[in-house]
Fold this protein.
Amino acid sequence: MHPTIKANLSKINFELGRNPTVEITDQVKKYIPQPYRAVFTLSADFELAWAWRFSKELGDPLAGALQKARLARKNVPLILQYCEQYQIPITWATVGHLFLAECQCEDRPHAEMERPNHFENGYWRFDRGDWYRDDPCTDYKTDPEWYCPDLLEAIKSSPVNHEVGCHTFSHIDCRDEVCPPEVFRSELTKCRQLAEAEGIRLDTFIYPAHTVGNLDELAPLGFTNYRSNIGNVLGYPIRHQSGLWEIKSSMQLELRPQWSAAYHIYRAKKTIDRAIKHQSVCHFWFHPSFSTEYLQEVFTEVLNYLHKRRDELHITTMGEYISWLNDQ
């Protein structure tokens, strides 16, 4: 389908109330803290170069990955500044390798880690070489696209109570048919070790590229919740039998070239209004590698609007919201 036609159909579905889908419940008090009318959470897929190195969308995936990482590094300090200005916390779903200040190669990078076999999905093609073949095995000052203890320290030291979540150690495909449990456990155990060394408790897990799988492994590994993205939803979290909570995505904050900045802002504000009207949970997510123009023209306006409506919105992190749910 032509991108312009797709964008226009999306506008129609939005105006008809079909996207996001609105769920109804008679147990609003179970999900919405009083005296608020809705809950809002915001997450960032914080990956630098790790997310894009096998991308099928980029002509030169490695070069594109490095460019994305540099843009994210430029944007994150600005994002933190705006979050402080409007008092909006973010759940930073962080690739575990970013905790490292440096790493070294001996026989091969991260020989202690279990590795996925070659695979292809809708986003990536990993069909040759070792999974860590692009790891520079240097440090964050030499190759800042692959490490960022400096940015993580900025997130930790922010006066806003941000959350650091888990996005696997090396941005793997987590689907059951691609990722054996031992690979999944190796990735998340490594993340937990690195986070604990920094005094960070990992409660929230966000799947890379929405590759949901190995769900039975999350609760035993100490996670309380994860984000799903089957479709955009204004609704309520689901508590699985294991005790793990599923938080549904409502909208991705991203630049669509077919839409004006004004329409991007309108759509985000209207979605927030609908969450308040229907007393539901609203979750926005984004990549910090979005364009700086989008950050300054759209993202800041969304944060400003959230701030203006905070008397009606319980604005929190994913982990804190789940802690509240578990205390009910």
Residues 3-327 form a domain with the TIM Barrel fold (CATH 3.20.20.370). The first strand starts at residue 21 and ends at 22.
